[in-house]
């Protein structure tokens, strides 16, 4: 719902960390600090997903501080045009307020970064990333070598 009638509606959404069964971001970050090879492997899978999409220097919307930190610390700045930190969609404030909040965050952060206006961004130029939330019923499992998580963006 948050991106309905915007350039971001229908964008690709994936998890930056896959196959890690921790839903608490603090626990996830602690686990990843102890297992740096897990971060390296997942970052490479993320890069492969971007290549599969034909994405060159996409705008990345990171849902939550953990996803933002993982991307900013492990993906080179020259691999994306903008990295936007958004409030995680699990935040309980109601869908209307959430929509207002994330659209304002996108607009503000893109303006600060000197990026193109929202109207100029194409859906194909957007990669969405969030820490893995196995308990989220909106995520569907796509079997395959990378075990990607995707869904139609409707929240």
Sum this structure up briefly.
The protein has 4 helices and 6 strands, in the order βααβαβαβββ. With about 160 residues, it is α/β, with parallel strands linked by helices.
Q: How would you spell out the order of helices and strands?
A: EHHEHEHEEE
Q: How would a crystallographer describe the biggest sheet?
A: 4 strands, parallel
What is the CA-based Rg, rounded? 15 Å
Number of helices in the DSSP assignment:
4
Average pLDDT rating:
76
Strand content: 5-15%
Helix content: 25-40%
Biggest sheet strand order reads 1-4-2-3
**What's the end-to-end separation, in Å?**
4 Å
Broad structural category? alpha/beta
List the main descriptive attributes of the protein structure presented here:
155 residues, alpha/beta, two-stranded antiparallel ribbon, 4 helices, 36% helix, globular, disordered C terminus
Structural features, described:
Mean pLDDT is 76; it is low at 115-126 and 130-155. Helix 3 links the parallel strand 2 (59-63) and strand 3 (82-86). The protein is built from 4 helices and 6 strands; from the N terminus they run βααβαβαβββ. It has 155 residues and is of the alpha/beta class. The strands form 2 sheets. The chain has a 4-stranded parallel β-sheet. A two-stranded antiparallel sheet has the order 5-6. It is 36% helix and 15% strand.
Topology:
Blueprint lengths: L11 E4 L9 H10 L1 H17 L6 E5 L1 H10 L7 E5 L8 H19 L12 E5 L9 E2 L7 E2 L5
Parallel strand pairs: 1-4, 2-3, 2-4
Antiparallel strand pairs: 5-6
